[in-house]
Amino acid sequence: MPMNNQEQKTYTFHVHGMHCNACVLMTENELKDLPNITHVKSSLHNHSVEVVGDFGNKTPEQIAEELSVPLKPHGYTVSVEKQIAAKNWADFTIAVPIALAFAVLFVVLQKAGLVNLVNTGSVTYATAFFIGIIASLSTCMAVVGGLVLSMSATFAKEGDTVKPQLLFHAGRIVSFFIFGGIIGAIGAAFTLNTAMTVTLNILIGIVMLILGINLLDVFPWAKKLQPAMPKFIAKHAHGISKFNHTLTPMLVGIATFFLPCGFTQSMQLYALSTGSFLAGSLTMLAFALGTLPILALVSFSSLGIKNHKQSGVFFKAAGLIVIMFALFNLINSLVIIGAISPIFNF
Questions:
Q1: Considering Cα of 175, then 176, then 178, then 184, what sign does the dihedral take?
Q2: Distance of alpha carbon 240 from its chain centroid, rounded?
Q3: Residue pLDDT, tens place only, 91-147
Q4: pTM, whole model, 2 decimals?
Q5: 155 partner at 20 to 30 Å CA-CA among 21, 110, 162, 205?
């Protein structure tokens, strides 16, 4: 039954737990499905959400509590008053030693010649796989986890829980391989010269640096710098999960390639710089395989690292490691163009 426009009111609430553009997409898509809401617009800049709808005689506090219900499973809460998020600097006392231990292990493995994570400014498959692991645990991938849970709930009502999950992950892995190759082939078509390749590598390093700083969760200004997929593409990708069809899980898996995750976009940039269908496809495949273990746990058991009591330590340690990768990439790119002398001899 259509609402009387006179009964509709506009409210603005604070949203706690927002970290990236994926959070904007997630909050909007979850709230717009509520029956008494006609318009939703989230803002990462203000960590807020504006809703238009008919809430009767409910107070703003009651409305905020009602809006929190569908968002809490994804790690968000809505309130009238703005809460100052704790930066938890104490987490660094554990995160820094973890990151340093990883750096030492990294150097040891490089010296031993067992792996080659950084090589003249390039991103190898081992790097892509590791970044995939971090991406699957980061808040940037929250929207993918939300897609999985939404799809799971839809099909679970019909008693089918395993097949949709398998189709989702198969669609995701295959699409990352194919689209990664296409991006690589596009790079070849443009015949990237050394300057353009180095420029892309520097851009990748900057994107990863921003992602790493955001994972630290102590510099709110960095969230404004994070790149995002055009919103209309991401919204269509998310909307696929609402259709209940046998092939829907596979389509959702394919759509995740276009969702607003900065880690995915940094790997897509690198795939473009390879100028090769095979190199691009294998890079994106390695990244997708890195995300597989955690996303599989999310889909089958609703695991959420961001809600764990030690999540702050994990994200800060992961952020420091990502920053390390970014700096390696940036430094080696500058070495290639002769801007600085070689710093690392492995």
A1: positive
A2: 18
A3: 888 989 988 988 787 777 666 655 554 443 456 788 888 888 888 776 555 556 666
A4: 0.61
A5: 21
H or E element at residue 250: helix 248-255
Distances (CA, A) of 337 to 86, 204, 340: 42, 16, 8
What the block records as the tokens of 49 is: 């959400």
Which helix (H) or strand (E) covers residue 93, if one does? helix 92-112
CATH architecture of 7-79: 2-Layer Sandwich (3.30)
Cβ within 8 Å of residue 310, ≥6 positions away: none
Question: Can you tell me the distance from the alpha carbon of 198 to that of 85, in angstroms, rounded to the nearest whole number?
Answer: 38
Closest CA to 281 of 173, 184, 172, 168: 184
Distance of CA 26 to the CA centre of its chain: 12
Residue that the structure tokens 């920053």 belong to: 323
By 3-state DSSP, what share of the chain in percent is helix, strand and coil, each rounded to 5?
Answer: 65, 10, 25
* Phi, psi for 119 (deg, rounded to 5): -145, 105
Place of tokens 């238009």: 52
* Residues forming beta bridges with residue 100, ordered by sequence position: none
Domain boundary assignment for the chain: 7-79, 89-336
